[in-house]
Design goal:
This protein has a seven-stranded mixed β-sheet. A two-stranded antiparallel sheet has the order 7-8. About 35% of the residues are buried. It is globular. It folds into two domains: about 260 residues, Rossmann fold, CATH 3.40.50; about 80 residues, no CATH class. It has 14 helices and nine strands. It is about 40% helix and about 10% strand. It is an alpha/beta fold.
Amino acid sequence: MTLDEFFDEETVIDYENSTTFLSKSCGQESKALLVKLKHDAEFRKQHTKGTIVLIMSNTGNEHPTTYDELWGETLQIAQSMGVDLYFVSSKKKEDFKAEERFIKPGIWLNGEHFSDETFHTDSWTSLDAKYRQNSTCGSPLFKKTCTDGLKIQPIYKFVEWYLILTYPDLEYNKRNKNIFYAYRKKYGMIRMMIGFSAGEEGRRRKPQLPFKWIKAGRKEIKVPNKSYIKWFEENIKTTYPLIDIGMDRKGTQDYLVEMGYTIPLPSNCMKCPFTTHRELLWLDMFERDEFDEWVVIEANKLIKYADKGKKNRGVFGKLNKDGTPYTLVDALAYAKKRYKHMSPKAIQDWKMSHGHCVTSQY
């Protein structure tokens, strides 16, 4: 189905009854963006249209304080604005370790269980489950698929579900994301706000074309672009308001304090395969059980693929000088020696100063 089948010169966009989505992580940047939307009417008018909806997808491996932030101050802000906060989880409750209110899977709305519907696939129920299911431990040597499987895919499946539920007047056939085309025809592009801050311009999703040119000898040939997702390119408009106004991470922290809010811990998975030595040191100091579990996960992976020889590597994707895999235990020993001058408070302050270990684009 083409855009020409939906749009004509007489199309009138009903922006007043449209929806603007904010992809939440409950870290510093997305919280600052939410606070800015609450307190700055001109900013809100510039970056949103119609109803604002907050959506967060559960990775199953967030920091405990991230869940506290979600149902604490973030929910309070949302309720004071009169906007809904959705939290989507997978279907397997054994994947979750947070307090009881998070264990029941499905859709949560404003802190209460709303539906058993789930948007996570069986292969991506949580980060921990993925590690166990595939006998892997995560590594920068592998393709970066966790953000797509645990965040992007569930969020846009939720958006599709939300549009079907909220706009029963739309006429469409139930194939190939046609609800998005029907929505766009009446309400305009689907707006998705992302809380990247200034300095993270490289993380913005780049618009894709159906084809790309590659060199073949002395010639260039046109080939299909595997990164092109037709329904997305034609219907979704991702925006980055903090980048637009030049607010960097330090700026988000200062703004939250200025407006009387707490600064949350940066939001990222505790067992992120793109971790650093200081991240491991923080994990050892503040979430030792998570580190110990990850050590076991890595060890099981190394045992299972021992026949791969030097190709069999751990989380850091490196080898020791003797040719053995450089493990999490090795990395922690190095971190303790390299950063022995840093107290737990210094490590915590450092942890608060940066965001993701990975630079996924979306």
